[in-house]
Amino acid sequence: MGATIVVGGQWGDEGKGKIVDFLAGKADAVVRYQGGNNAGHTVVVDGHEHKMHLVPSGIFYGKLSIIGNGVVLDPAVLTREMAYLEGQGIDLAPLRISECAHLIFPYHIVQDAHEEKQKGDARIGTTKLGIGPAYQDKSARIGIRVIDLLDEEAFPELLRRNLDTKNNLLRRVYDDAGFAERDYETMLDTYRTYGRRLRPFVTDTAPLIEDAVRSGKNVLFEGAQGTMLDLDHGTYPYVTSSHPVAGGACIGAGIGPTLIDRVVGVVKGYTTRVGDGPFPTELMDEVGSFIRERGHEYGTTTGRPRRVGWLDLVVVAVSRRTSGLGYLALTRLDTLSGLEKVRVCVGYRYDGQRLDVFPHSLKVLSRCEPIYEEFAGWEDIGGVTSWDGLPGAARDYVTAVAELSGVPVAMVSVGRDRVQTLQLHDVF
Ligand code: GDP
Ligand code: IMO
Ligand code: MG
Description:
The chain contains 13 helices and 19 strands. It has helices at residues 16-24, 75-87, 106-119, 131-139, 146-149, 155-172, 181-198, 205-214, 247-253, 286-294, 313-323, 362-366, 392-405, and strands at residues 3-8, 29-32, 41-45, 48-52, 64-67, 72-73, 95-98, 102-103, 202-203, 219-222, 260-268, 270-273, 307-312, 327-331, 341-350, 353-355, 369-376, 409-413, 421-423. The strands form four sheets. Strands 9-7-5-2-10-1-11-14-18-19 form a ten-stranded mixed sheet, sandwiched between helices. Strands 12, 13, 15, 16 and 17 form a five-stranded mixed sheet that branches. A two-stranded antiparallel ribbon has the order 3-4. Helix 3 packs across helix 4 (131-139). Residues 8, 11-13, 38-41, 124-127, 129, 131-132, 224-226, 229, 240-241, 274-275, 300 line the site of 6-O-phosphoryl inosine monophosphate.
């Protein structure tokens, strides 16, 4: 029992939504703590797929589902997602939204596009959803929070102030027409409508979370993105603007580290990355294409093809250290089915020397050669329902990943559906 953080152990899209949904069956609450609708978390229940961007994956079990203060919220996306869920017959009563979450506005999205364009070949490959600019405003202390949106007196002035500031930036730096007075009026009206829709769900969520944890309830923290996209610990500058690592949960939910009981790292049996930036084990050959096609590795949020490579345990070690992983959830083992050999990177060779720790210099990274261990492949395992039912080669692979990473594997996922999950250890 207690608080469990679920983090992405790679560059995102590890299957966090699936694992959180699986664990949510035994949880009382699920909390999103950072990121925004750059996240795309897929949950498959009874063969039915749901792609969630903001609402925590606990909603499918009707569990208390909290959007914490650390999230940047695009109310257009959230209200659309709420309508979708209601259309699916899912009760929104357990949804809570932090009054301290910062809002995304249309000018953030425009700014994101300009920043990317200006970077040219050095672009990050963002989702262009305004995430970075919204966090910039938060740090610059000019952000507009949900609580401000609900303050009908103060909101129009705050919006005008920010729109003036952004117009200065857009016109002077980016040669953009900016937002006209009628755009201001439309934005004000639209956001007031969002405010009315969201108001019943808005509250101070941190005390709710503390109460749940202290009263012995099971609370899950659903990380978005992944360790290597962390603003401090990832492949900077090819990162997102928040802290996906476990420490981000304390800040983004508003509870202290002594209340956290355990951390689960979700890791694919291989690696993917969407967007630009270093990727030492990237496969540019037919094995990469095989995995991409077999695994339908295309972005949940942007539809972009995901870059594919072998499992990189140097990366997983960054996650083990920065998030203090107690368990791994190893996903997508079925996607590797049909390969004769499966490789795992256990270190890098750089300048004739072996590196066991992920380097921070992009120059060094670009010259790192992965050192691989090779394992025998296995055939289709999508229908396997127990550890003993897995082929010996797949079991050897899982055992080796646990040994080489130094983190026990608590769950093995062999398909998209909630039921295609093998539990090797109880997480809570
Ligand atoms: P998230 O962002 O970490 O929640 O992951 P995404 O939902 O963006 O991407 C993971 C994709 O893999 C989704 O389409 C999931 O349905 C799917 N998925 C998760 N686990 C497995 C698995 O074990 N096998 C297969 N084939 N698909 C999986
Ligand atoms: P989930 O939660 C994979 C990537 C973008 C880009 C970088 C910065 O589904 O795992 P941003 O729009 O955040 O400023 O883009 O981060 N990125 C993700 N990649 N999964 C995600 O979320 C991602 N969220 C952002 O592709 O490289
Ligand atoms: Mg995703």
